[in-house]
Amino acid sequence: MPTQTATTITMPQLGESVTEGTIGTWLKQVGDRVEKYEPLVEVETDKVSSEIPSPVAGVLVEILIEPETTVPIGTGLCRIEQADSAGVSSAPPAPQSWGAGGAERAELPSELDLLRARSSPVVRRIAEEHGLDVAQIEGTGVGGRVTKQDILAYVARLQTAPPAEPAQERVVPPAPAPAPVTTPAEARPTARTPLQIYPGDEIVPLSPMRRQIAEHMARSERTAPHVTTVVEVDMTNVVAYRAARKEEFARREGVELTYLPFAIKAVTLALRDHPRLNAVWDEDHIIHRRAVNVGVAVGLEDGLIVPVVKNADRLSLTGLMHAVAELAGKARAGTLTPDDVTGGTFTVNNPGTFGSIASTPILVQPQVAIISTEAIVKRPVVVDDMIGIRSMMNLSLSFDHRALDGLAAARFLQQVKRWLESVSDELTLS
């Protein structure tokens, strides 16, 4: 008789700076046969939506985490029973247990376990944001669990309910004060007061992507002392070069030739000579990356994602254009893989597409620099003591002042500027 062993499948690392993921739809149910590498469950992070494959073959005997629950990396998601030799246990699977830890837990669940079984972290966050008690909301989920739909419907009913009489502000009479004690401001506890909801207001729950972007941006600003420096670039030659070739390029390559690959090319060439900007911060040391992997910010309806062009310094302008077009298409279609969003060493943002003329981009941790290409605008400029109409663009570079200083950043920007301004008909696309 073969013996059976149970393997716990855990939440994998789905990105360099990703610390948690939200469970989507379970693609297998308790009792189902699972083959090795067969998709088990959908997981969503701020960077990517992905299917988690099974690393082993066997029978799914227990699901540990319910849908819409956000859990940190390394959390057990389910258990798969596999045979040590040919065949798999024919014993009936253990009954599914949401959040209670399965049949292995013989002890009575604690109040905390019951609360977790009744509502997911997503539900509890929404309740906290609106000052609600989850226990007072009727749940329609498994075992009376309050689902995300339940709490959103409850909030919507509160919005449409007739306004109540304004409550009198509660005045608490002061208690006899002890001898005064000076407490540092940062040590004083602060309670979050829910914001007032007025008639006509729309409540928009945070999506997992929006919440994790917010956490990452806030953490980046708290962690790294950001400095932004801006240089002005004469893009007249680049504009003329692109205008002369964009129609033929579109016919030949099947994608539009934009200004972005010119900026990426200039950046990658400068990074070779300025490795301090192609680096990541690791607390007690700085790692200068050998590979030049450029993240390209892609705007989505509910946020921003940064897929990575691997070994960008080895690609021609045509290669860069195809790489950016492919990654942007996958980002908007929601088909990016974890490999598409990891390994970045430097990021290029392109708000100029929407008319921005100056910005202060926030670092993608743990990278030490990010650059924004702004709008190309025709302006009168003094050239050789004469006034001419030129196509001008600003480059905004934010950098981590722990890792480098203004001199290194300025020298890097000057090299990017020189390359862009030196573009001529001799430049080849391939």
Question: What this model shows, in words?
Answer:
The structure is a single chain. The protein is an alpha+beta fold. The chain is built from 8 helices and 19 strands. The chain is globular, with a radius of gyration of 27 Å.
Q: What general outline do the C-alpha atoms trace? A: globular
Query: What top-tier CATH class of the largest domain fits best?
Result: Alpha Beta
- Spell the H/E element sequence: EEEEEEEEHHHHEHHEEEEEEHEEEEH
Number of domains: 3
Count of helix runs: 8
- Residue stretches low in confidence (pLDDT < 50, at least 5 long) are 85-117, 185-189
Terminal-residue CA separation? 63 Å
**Could you give a short account of the major beta sheet?**
7 strands, mixed
Structural class: alpha+beta
In what range is the share of β-strand residues?
A: 15-25%
CATH fold assignment of the largest domain:
Chloramphenicol Acetyltransferase
| SS elements, strand count | 19
Which CATH-level-2 architecture of the largest domain?
2-Layer Sandwich
Helix content: 25-40%
Compute the CA-based radius of gyration: 27 Å
Mean pLDDT: 82
How do the strands and helices of this protein lay out in sequence?
Blueprint: E1 4-10, E2 20-26, E3 33-34, E4 39-44, E5 49-53, E6 58-63, E7 70-72, E8 76-83, H1 111-118, H2 121-129, H3 148-160, H4 208-223, E9 226-234, H5 236-253, H6 260-273, E10 279-281, E11 286-288, E12 294-296, E13 298-300, E14 303-305, E15 308-309, H7 317-333, E16 346-349, E17 369-373, E18 377-383, E19 386-400, H8 406-421
Helix pairs in contact: 6-7, 6-8
Give me a quick take on this structure.
This protein has 430 residues and is α+β, with helices and mostly antiparallel strands. It contains eight helices and 19 strands. Strands 9, 12, 15, 16, 17, 18 and 19 form a seven-stranded mixed β-sheet that branches. The chain has a four-stranded antiparallel β-sheet with strand order 1-8-6-3, with no helix packed on it.
